Amino acid sequence: MNEWTYLNKPVLSIDDMQDVEPKVWGFVYHLTLYDKKTNKVEYYYIGKKNIFSKRKRNFGKKELSLHTDKRKKKYEYIIKESDWKTYMSSNKFIKDNINKYNIKREILSFSTNDMDLSFQEAKEIMCQGALESDKYLNDGVSIRRFGNKIIN
Q1: What is the per-residue pLDDT across 116-149, written as a single tens digit (0 to 9) for each?
Q2: Residues 6+ apart with CB under 8 A from 139
Q3: Whole-prediction pTM value?
Q4: Is residue 46 within 8 Å of residue 28, measured between CB atoms?
Q5: Could you give the CA distance from residue 66 to residue 49 in angstroms, rounded to a whole number?
Q6: Pick from 21, 18, 17: nearest CA to 6
Q7: Using alpha carbons only, what angle is made at residue 128 by residues 127 and 130, rounded to the nearest 5 degrees?
Q8: Residue spans per domain, the chain
């Protein structure tokens, strides 16, 4: 499988990312799909990927019985590394045709939070003209909210 690269250097672990951005949460990526037979560029795709997943875990009965203060929260957040090393894309076409193409995986930028990650992805999609080109498999862009600041 092709490895992720950033500025033409391989990214094999989270440590490689933290050399660039110490508090990295995710990255925006660019895929180039080459036809396996002709080695010609067929398609491109821009996306984002969290390198950590955060989920809520409710305490079990034994853990709850240890808490005497009923005002304490009854859950904890679990943060673990995602499947970013083997991740290809959420795009249905790429998933369905992954064996037809050689895929070059490039990291464009790193983000420290979900808000910035969504903004950076939308910015790349718009600036690259991905929605206007038949070569790009992107079919939309979405930004939900940014509060008071877009960039920290």
Answers
A1: 899 999 999 999 999 999 999 999 888 766 566 6
A2: 131
A3: 0.84
A4: yes
A5: 38
A6: 17
A7: 115
A8: 4-51+83-127
